[in-house]
């Protein structure tokens, strides 16, 4: 007979963890970009992620990685590592490359515009090419 603790451990190994810790995410993210505007945009992005609900964070994770859960070790074990790159467009929706766990983030005029675009992308464009 399998104990409840052991069964939970097996589920964690098979399914990963549903908890998305913003500090862990930020600590293990690779960032490609530079400059004052890019630093401003990254600050907005992490503030937005911190203000998302757990379900919205899972959707953002799904949008960027193709999976709504993390490996048992969190972002440290995500392979390839989550990365944020500057997109060459202004004011457009963010895009993602799930094969590379990459979020391409355009620049925006203000925080509110970025949050609207991010939420639109993860809520309307997060289904990808899923199986029926």
TrEMBL record:
Enzyme class, spelled out: transferase
Keywords: Transferase, Ubl conjugation pathway
Pathway the protein takes part in: Protein modification; protein ubiquitination
Reactions catalysed, as given in the entry: S-ubiquitinyl-[E2 ubiquitin-conjugating enzyme]-L-cysteine + [acceptor protein]-L-lysine = [E2 ubiquitin-conjugating enzyme]-L-cysteine + N(6)-ubiquitinyl-[acceptor protein]-L-lysine
InterPro entries, A to Z: E3_ubiq-protein_ligase, HECT_dom, Hect_E3_ubiquitin_ligase
Catalytic site positions: 99 (glycyl thioester intermediate)
Entry protein name: HECT-type E3 ubiquitin transferase
Species name: Iphiclides podalirius
């Amino acid at each position: 007979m399998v104990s409840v603790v052991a069964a939970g451990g097996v589920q964690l190994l098979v399914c990963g963890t549903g908890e998305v810790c913003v500090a862990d995410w930020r600590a293990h993210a690779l960032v490609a970009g530079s400059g004052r505007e890019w630093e401003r945009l990254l600050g907005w992005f992490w503030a937005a992620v911190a203000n998302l609900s757990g379900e919205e964070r899972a959707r953002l994770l799904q949008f960027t990685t193709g999976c709504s859960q993390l490996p048992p070790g969190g972002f440290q074990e995500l392979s390839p590592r989550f990365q944020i790159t500057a997109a060459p467009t202004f004011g457009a929706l963010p895009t993602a490359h799930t094969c590379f766990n990459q979020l391409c983030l355009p620049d925006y005029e203000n925080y509110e515009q970025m949050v609207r675009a991010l939420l639109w992308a993860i809520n309307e464009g997060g289904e990808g090419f899923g199986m029926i």
